[in-house]
């Protein structure tokens, strides 16, 4: 009798422990941890999450936020050893999220977000098939959650971001959209993300900075509205001094939008205390931006990136920029040393890395004046670049490739300076001469003309230019230019 009583007591205690309800409690400590992680103060965020795990062992949110830490580390730094160590945590966290109450909006959302983040990580580690399935599953979970909890706006943040991108996947990566079986809408996707930013609900305010991060990139690279991006950054007073993630984002946008001086200012004025995670990508950005400005110390930052970065994305491009630095400084020994490293290091997942490898294999160096003009123009130093090119004419260049680049560079400079008619003249010369050549100049010129005509609301000419860009085959940067041209066509068609 006594034995059965003890057995019943043990069973009762065991059942009560196993039946304790797990919860998704995004409490103050978790919010502080999330804010720290989103600023890339990862150690501070992790310390807060460990406190929460001890104080509230049934709270699942700390384990969900652990995934953010892994995402930023693996996505930015691409360390294969850390990836091997952290990869098993994906399945463990997903299983843990399934222990929560199914009547919570966080039940499906946390699973979707974890899958979305691992999908992005897997792209960086060349696990493209697994990445596609993670992103597909994340999207389906979010759509399901939107039906169950339409007022839960974080759904809109992630689903809207994915929806915006889906419709612009270029021909070379069409297998992804075919596998996903989804068509996107730029307008609807952007509205969904904007809804999170504009809402004053408690949960929307919680995720607002993350939504701003997605929104800025989508606004620039999908909608092609750089001035709107800068206006947005000012309007919402994004903190680039104490939020390292925002500093990296704004510097990256500056690099892609001919604002080298602004990018350098943001990165050099940010709070660089030891509480922030070390991200070697910052040296890649600074090196690129300083090379555009023709700073003598640009090589210092590019060398730091190459020495400290353990991943493969952007490595060939970084080595190419370093070789260009030494080439322009007449140090051919160092220039050839770093160009040769392009052949064996990094990968060719990005168009820029593909181009760097192609250039290295060619054995040819760019014309120094054209290269200098390109870098100055890329940095937003248009008057200096124009002065260099106006001292020359097409006949001064020996090869057809150089003549073509001369016309294209002049077109881009006029374009950026607001001299649209002059830009169109040079772009048309570029397209006429180079549409059947392997260089990207003609395709990019056609894309840029599309932007000009779209801005003028001349939809017929804009559509013709975007389609011409898509129709050109076998040129450099094919995937990225096609994606931008497809986005242009979608905008014209009200997508």
Task: Tell me what you see in this structure.
With 495 residues, the protein is mainly α. The protein has 28 helices and no strands. It has helices at 2-18, 28-38, 42-55, 61-77, 80-86, 88-97, 105-124, 128-148, 154-166, 174-180, 186-198, 202-206, 208-221, 226-235, 244-255, 260-269, 281-292, 298-308, 315-328, 332-342, 351-362, 368-379, 382-390, 400-416, 420-434, 441-455, 459-471, 478-492. Helix 13 (208-221) packs antiparallel against helix 14 (226-235) and helix 18 (298-308) runs antiparallel to helix 19 (315-328). It starts with a helix and ends with a helix. Mean pLDDT is 93; it is low at 9-18.
List keywords for this structure.
72% helix, mainly alpha, 28 helices, 495 residues
Summed over residues and divided by their number, the pLDDT gives a mean of 93
The biggest sheet, with number of strands, parallel, antiparallel or mixed sense and barrel status, is: none
Uncertain spans: 9-18
What portion of residues belong to β-strands?
Answer: under 5%
Shape: globular
In short:
With 495 residues, the protein is mainly alpha-helical. It has helices spanning 2-18, 28-38, 42-55, 61-77, 80-86, 88-97, 105-124, 128-148, 154-166, 174-180, 186-198, 202-206, 208-221, 226-235, 244-255, 260-269, 281-292, 298-308, 315-328, 332-342, 351-362, 368-379, 382-390, 400-416, 420-434, 441-455, 459-471, 478-492.
Strand and helix layout:
Layout: H1 2-18, H2 28-38, H3 42-55, H4 61-77, H5 80-86, H6 88-97, H7 105-124, H8 128-148, H9 154-166, H10 174-180, H11 186-198, H12 202-206, H13 208-221, H14 226-235, H15 244-255, H16 260-269, H17 281-292, H18 298-308, H19 315-328, H20 332-342, H21 351-362, H22 368-379, H23 382-390, H24 400-416, H25 420-434, H26 441-455, H27 459-471, H28 478-492
């Amino acid at each position: 009798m006594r034995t059965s009583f003890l057995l019943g007591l043990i069973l009762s205690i065991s059942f009560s422990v196993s039946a304790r309800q797990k919860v998704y409690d995004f409490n103050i400590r978790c919010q502080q941890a999330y804010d720290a992680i989103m600023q890339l103060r990862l150690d501070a965020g992790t310390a807060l999450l460990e406190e929460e795990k001890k104080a509230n062992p049934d709270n699942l949110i700390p384990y969900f936020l652990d995934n953010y830490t892994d995402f930023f580390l693996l996505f930015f730094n691409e360390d294969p050893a850390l990836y091997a160590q952290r990869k098993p945590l994906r399945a463990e966290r997903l299983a843990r999220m399934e222990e929560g109450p199914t009547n919570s909006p966080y039940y499906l959302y946390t699973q979707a977000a974890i899958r979305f983040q691992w999908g992005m990580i897997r792209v960086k580690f060349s696990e493209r098939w697994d990445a596609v399935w993670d992103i597909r599953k994340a999207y389906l979970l979010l759509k399901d959650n939107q039906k169950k909890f339409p007022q839960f706006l974080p759904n809109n943040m992630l689903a809207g971001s994915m929806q915006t991108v889906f419709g612009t996947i270029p021909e070379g990566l069409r297998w992804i959209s075919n596998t996903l079986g989804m068509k996107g809408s730029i307008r609807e996707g952007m509205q969904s993300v904007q809804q999170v930013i504009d809402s004053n609900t408690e949960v929307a305010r919680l995720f607002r900075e993350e939504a701003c991060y997605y929104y800025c990139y989508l606004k620039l690279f999908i909608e092609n509205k750089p001035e709107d991006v800068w206006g947005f950054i000012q309007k919402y007073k994004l903190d680039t001094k104490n939020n390292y993630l925002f500093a990296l984002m704004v510097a990256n946008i500056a690099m892609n939008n001919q604002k080298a001086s602004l990018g350098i200012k943001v990165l050099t004025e940010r709070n660089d205390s030891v509480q922030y995670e070390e991200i070697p990508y910052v040296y890649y950005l600074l090196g690129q931006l300083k090379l555009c400005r023709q700073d003598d110390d640009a090589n210092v930052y590019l060398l730091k990136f190459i020495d400290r970065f353990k991943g493969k994305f952007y490595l060939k491009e970084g080595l190419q920029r370093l070789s260009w630095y030494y080439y322009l400084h007449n140090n051919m020994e160092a220039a050839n040393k770093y160009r040769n490293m392009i052949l064996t290091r990094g990968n060719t997942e990005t168009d820029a890395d593909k181009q760097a490898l192609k250039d290295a294999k060619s054995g040819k160096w760019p014309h120094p004046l054209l290269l200098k003009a390109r870098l100055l123009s890329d940095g937003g130093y248009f008057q200096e670049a124009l002065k260099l090119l106006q001292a020359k004419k097409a006949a001064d260049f020996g090869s057809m490739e150089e003549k073509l680049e001369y016309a294209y560079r002049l077109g881009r400079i006029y374009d950026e300076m607001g001299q649209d008619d002059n830009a169109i003249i040079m772009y048309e010369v570029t397209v006429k001469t180079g549409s059947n050549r392997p260089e990207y100049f003609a395709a990019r010129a056609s894309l840029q003309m599309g932007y000009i005509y779209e801005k003028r609301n001349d939809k017929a000419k804009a559509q013709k230019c975007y389609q011409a860009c898509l129709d050109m085959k076998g040129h450099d940067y094919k995937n990225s230019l096609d994606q931008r041209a497809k986005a242009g066509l979608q905008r014209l068609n009200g997508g």
